[in-house]
Amino acid sequence: MTPASSARTISLQLRIWRQVTPEAPGGFQTYRLEAVSTDLSLLEALDLLNEQLIAAGERPVGFEHDCREGICGSCGFLVNGQAHGPQAATSVCQLYLRQFADGASLSLEPWRARAFPLIQDLAVDRAAMDRLLIAGGYCSVSTGQAPEANAILVGQEQARSAFDTATCIGCGACVASCRNASASLFVAAKLAHLAQLPQGLPERGRRSAAMQAAMTAEGFGSCSSNLECEAACPKQISADWISWMHVDLHARNQRN
Amino acid sequence: MGGLPDPRLPAGPIADAWRRTRAELPLISPLRKRQLHVLVVGTGLAGASAAATLAEQGYRVTVLTYHDSPRRAHSVAAQGGINAAKNYAGDGDSIERLFADTLRGGDFRAREAGCMRLAELSSGIIDQCVAQGVPFAREYGGTLASRSFGGALVSRTFYARGQTGQQLLYGATGALLRQVAAGRINLLCRRDVLELITVDGVARGVVARHLLTGALEVHTAQAVLLATGGYSNVFFLSTNALKSNATAIWRAHRQGALFANPCFTQIHPTCIPSGDAGQSKLTLMSESLRNDGRIWLPAIAGDSRPPEQIPEAERDYFLERLYPRYGNMAPRDLASRRARELCNGGHGVGPGGRSVYLDLRDAIAEQGRAVIAARYGNLLEMYARISGDDPYAVPLRIYPAPHYTMGGLWVDYQLMSSIPGLFVLGEANYSEHGANRLGASALMQGLADGYFIAPATVSAWLAGQPTPEISADHPACREALARARARLEALLQLNGQRPVDAFHRELGTLMIERCGISRTAGGLRAGLAEVGALEQRFQVELRVPGGIEGPNPELEKALRVSDFFGLAQLMLRDALAREESCGAHFREEHQSADGEARRDDDRFSHIAAWEYTGDGREPVRHAEPLRFTALQPSARSYR
């Protein structure tokens, strides 16, 4: 039997934002975890902490999570001020403790954005992002109306590029890392996904106007041009799409 | 309960039977549709597609999901692809071949009419998804690309890199959100369905808990659709998302819905193994890695040398040795079983000796690192993130993990459960996958159910429902509310010390040992006693912090685990009663001299449908015989 290649244990100091309701005052509380395996993810370390808190009769830490493989987009909070923590292209559920030194101190706090009201501790309400999609983030085609699939040709490169923007998992890291709390990268990704495919073209202008108007109405800020969104995005969606979105909207406005 | 209902199978030849059935279904006027109300629980592929399609047809639809957004449903995690009998590759594929592969893949434990319908609908699913803007992989000329998958001899799997489920789900949830915008869908997120409401044995609504406020709500309708996914989390460590659960189907079962073949659960051979005791899940590595990776273990039991120090002659490429025709591409259940046997025999590697090597060394040497990186780059990055190893330098470590549950609520050909008015879609039902699911068929089934089958059959049900929906203060609603409240209060007043996860982990360890890759009568009986004892300890030693009000994730988990106890016992009973080996269900007593599964068509060519008869009472096992006209059962052989 071979020993695991990297298994070691470390101790961690976790400084966690605790706030029981949106109205109650919140603040950081510090916890220590001793001898945790570096083969655990940060969320698994929070599971362990919660088991200890429950056994001690305290309220466990609230945080969002589900698939724990980086695809559902449920998880997300700031780790030492960075959305999803220090590792590039990684959602926080895929952040393993081997990224941290023994005795490291980690500050965990929720996404901070006006459009994301706090629920409890590290959990916030991101329903506003769904309302942006409701404004037009789809192709209006009902079941049964579809033509034969190969009647719509899409070049390989075009399909690849559309896919790259369609991989957005809706986690909100872009909003959380933007100093204006803008959802520009989220909106641009959806607009670019559909505008690059022939299926999305009939509604392209209407979709763009509606989703950007919804973004303002929901209380998201405008793009801060700092590119923090791109750096934080676990799917590495390029902020160039924000420029593309602005140019596209400008061109349309000029024509109208 | 009146035993087993009529499965309403079509008469005549199974080819084209769905079209003939649909042509006979009653229609409803557009004005009338606006007065009819449907509840859909779950927003994965099946739920989202059904909700969107029913709303497009003009019904009022209420959708409930425990997620904060429909896009988070676990369909999002499906990697591989979706099958369709398009025959774009010109390699001889056809509806008949997809039908035959599905039926054979399920080891002749599914209804042939259902498998044929699935194959017939498969092409239309791809058309629908493309029209929605799903960015499938393309050929240079712009046509759809396809690949062969899971041992299929034809290239019929459509894909969007390694994120096919995500892209199909975004297509379906886009369609759902479009109907929200149109005012035809009332989307209620963060609701956990805890009880089914029935009136005179007919499904009329559900009780749900609002996960932020803790309020219990009554939702009524003229039809209820459960599309709540599978129950692999009974094993604690599985490839499922952590919140995936069986509560909605289990509560429906307790209200009279028959549960079919609960012991048919699929174990996927290529997952990232468990390491630390605090690990919360197992992550799937796409099976496509087996195309280039060679699977091996040290030939000498207990060999603790690092892999690079084990000479070629002392490596056992056991799949290549045992299955020279298929090699590393041997079917999922055989690969899983052989891995487990060798690990039990002391050959396993990694923590606890619970993994096998999947080695890309030879493929990198032959094809170059760049080719392998282009093919599997994303997967290998994910592996490196989770394991901390460099898969280009050292072999990957993999181990089988529970992945998909073929078993589920019994449904008839029209997807209606044994409770009239209760429809069950996708992984939550028992349907076309039989005793083992073919690769890239889960997405196909979920969308066939949601886009095409349920919208037609639910309409037919509604056409016969002259009565309005019941009011929320109907005695049946009050009774269901009281049931839900009593469960919550019972869990919260326990005065124990142990958190839910400790019990769930214990249940999982037990179930994977007793009812996992390989099963014996003795082990299953012992498992029944052990699960019963653990459940009793749960009811004394559990501690759930907090109260009914406000967010309380521990309470959510406690409800789910308490339902898993009942389901686990039903799985063990079902595995014990099925005295044969078929598909993913392997009973050690039923194998040939060379270790192959021995199916017993004389005694077990049927769907076992279990009836709940009360707590502490033996459930009743009904049998729906399976008849085969288009393809006769044959034994499979991969040697």
Structural write-up:
The complex is a heterodimer of chains A (256) and B (639). By secondary structure, chain A is α+β, with helices and mostly antiparallel strands. Chain A folds into two domains: 9-109, Roll (Ubiquitin-like (UB roll)); 127-255, Orthogonal Bundle (Fumarate Reductase Iron-sulfur Protein, Chain B, domain 2). In chain A, 33% of the residues lie in helices and 14% in strands. Chain A has eight helices and seven strands; from the N terminus they run E-E-H-E-E-E-E-E-H-H-H-H-H-H-H. Chain A has helices spanning 42-55, 127-134, 156-166, 173-177, 184-195, 204-217, 228-232, 240-255; strands at 9-18, 27-37, 78-79, 82-83, 104-109, 118-120, 123-124. The termini of chain A are far apart. By secondary structure, chain B is α+β, with helices and mostly antiparallel strands. Among the domains of chain B are: 270-402, Succinate dehydrogenase/fumarate reductase flavoprotein, catalytic domain (Flavocytochrome C3, Chain A, domain 1), CATH 3.90.700.10; 475-603, Fumarate reductase/succinate dehydrogenase flavoprotein-like, C-terminal domain (Methane Monooxygenase Hydroxylase, Chain G, domain 1), CATH 1.20.58.100. Helix content of chain B is 36%, strand content 15%. Chain B has helices spanning 17-24, 30-33, 45-56, 95-105, 112-131, 164-181, 247-254, 318-322, 332-344, 361-367, 369-387, 442-463, 475-492, 500-515, 521-541, 553-577, 601-604; strands spanning 37-41, 60-64, 82-83, 157-158, 185-188, 191-199, 202-210, 216-220, 223-226, 259-260, 265-272, 283-284, 294-298, 315-316, 356-359, 396-405, 408-410, 422-424, 429-430, 606-611, 620-625. In chain B, helix 14 (500-515) packs antiparallel against helix 15 (521-541) and helix 15 runs antiparallel to helix 16. The longest helix of chain B is centred in the last third of the chain and has 25 residues, at 553-577. At the A-B interface, helix 1, helix 2 and helix 3 of A face helix 3, helix 5, helix 6, strand 12 and helix 11 of B.
